[in-house]
Amino acid sequence: MAKVQRGYRCSACGAESAAHAGRCPRCEAWNTLEPFQRAPGVGGLARAGDPDAEPGRILSLRDVPDDPGARLLTGIPEFDRVLGGGIVPGSLVLVGGEPGIGKSTLMLQAAARLAGAGVTVAYVCGEESPRQVRLRATRLGVEGSAVALVPEANLDAALAAAGELGASVLIIDSIQSVYVAGLESRAGGPAQLAEAGARLVGWAKEREIATIVTGHVTKGGEIAGPRLLEHLVDAVLYFESAESGFLRVLRAVKNRFGATDEVGVFEMTGEGLRSVESPSAAFLEAAGTTASGCAVTAIIEGSRPLAIEIQALAVPSHLAAPRRIASGLEVARLHLLLAVLARRGGLFAANLDVVATVSGGLRLRDPSADLAVVAALASAIQDRELEPGTAFLGEVALSGAIRPVQQAQRRLAELARLGLRHCLVPPGTAPVEGLRLLPVGNVREALRVALPQGRPG
Ligand code: TYD
Ligand code: MG
């Protein structure tokens, strides 16, 4: 529906129309159309609660408050972190993930915490009966919570119910289980998702109600579905399982109110999701570091350093063009580092299939882990373990030179905190307490230190 500058707006669903009618053309509620006027160009910026947000008044950019409003804390540290420090009122957040990953569990835990803090929460359980939700609540130990369950699959009816309750937070679990009346398309179909998304954005902004919707995505996330909503919503968080099975990583892939590379780490327990306080330790523990081809490094994810393990495997290939498989890093980077290793380190993988992965399902976003990848590859090619307790930090240039990385001190401090004892670093790296730094100028030097000749493999 096109934005009109002046006209009538439905107080139930937020639909706008140029002409007055007794019945809303969209949600078909009676006598809900009210006159409104929008200032050209700023309608989307002005928000209820802003001192200058009267409709029709043009705001100077510098007068618009930069504070998006007091955030609501869910009290689940890892969830709040990924949201950018809590939920912004009026924002629409999509939490996507495969079925069974733990979306409903996270939603119910957050809802119960918020309700416990006196926030009115409406939980639209389109997917399950209230009895099923109650069963989960009992398992989570929050059955006494004041969360308002709305067992309603009709989106407009659900919104009306939430409005009536005076909810400040609305949870819709899941977007595929609700439908917009009057559309031909089936619930969960593209037309339904697009329309439901558009209504929710308007509704959340209009009423300053923080709205979280869950959405199922299939493995790989390729199937059209919640991805259709990504451009509409303020934040997109994806829930994934890390390799060990019970670790869950919640990743912000879009966030208008926070960092997009932020991750939250949870453990799925018998009593719901538990925030993992030291994800580094969990990732290293899950990886288990006593095998050839494994090298530890520290990356920066969002606002914090995380220790991770690079794992590489190299086996004789029967193919004319041996395989190169990379997960968590670009395959082009793997090719490049193998080339550097061959030319500058004298280690060839031309007749080996090579696989390289990053622990915890994380992704390398910058070259700071190059040295760790090179060490893991060298260790895999020679099938010899790297010295236990040793970490690697540094970018590798085509010349084989080891280059400094950003925020080296924070990374090194995290490695020291986790009990690593040595770290190969670029020359000139400032010392850090608790970690012995081994400066290496180039790949050949790094290999001499990490895989000394004569040490049994
Ligand atoms: P669920 O939140 O229903 O996943 P989603 O909404 O993403 O489909 O989580 C379902 C899985 O989590 C299910 O396999 C059971 C498991 N689980 C636990 O291990 N512990 C718990 O406390 C709960 C509530 C679920
Ligand atoms: Mg669910």
Short key terms for the protein model shown above:
elongated, 3 domains, binds magnesium ion, nine-stranded mixed sheet, 457 residues, 10 helices, 21 strands, alpha/beta, Rossmann fold, binds thymidine-5'-diphosphate, 25% helix, Ribosomal Protein S5, domain 2, four-stranded mixed sheet
What count of structural domains?
Answer: 3
- Count of helical segments? 10
Ends apart, CA distance between termini: 68 Å
Bound molecules: thymidine-5'-diphosphate, magnesium ion
Overall average residue pLDDT: 86
Let me know the CATH homologous superfamily of the largest domain.
Answer: P-loop containing nucleotide triphosphate hydrolases
Task: Report the CATH architecture of the largest domain.
Answer: 3-Layer(aba) Sandwich
Question: What is the share of helical residues?
Answer: 25-40%
Characterize the overall form. elongated
Structural class: alpha/beta
Low-confidence stretches: 39-53
Q: Which sequence of strands runs across the widest sheet? A: 6-5-7-8-4-9-10-11-12
Instruction: Evaluate the radius of gyration.
Output: 26 Å
The CATH first-level class of the largest domain comes to Alpha Beta
Strand content: 15-25%
- How would you sum up the major sheet? 9 strands, mixed
Number of strands: 21
CATH topology descriptor of the largest domain: Rossmann fold
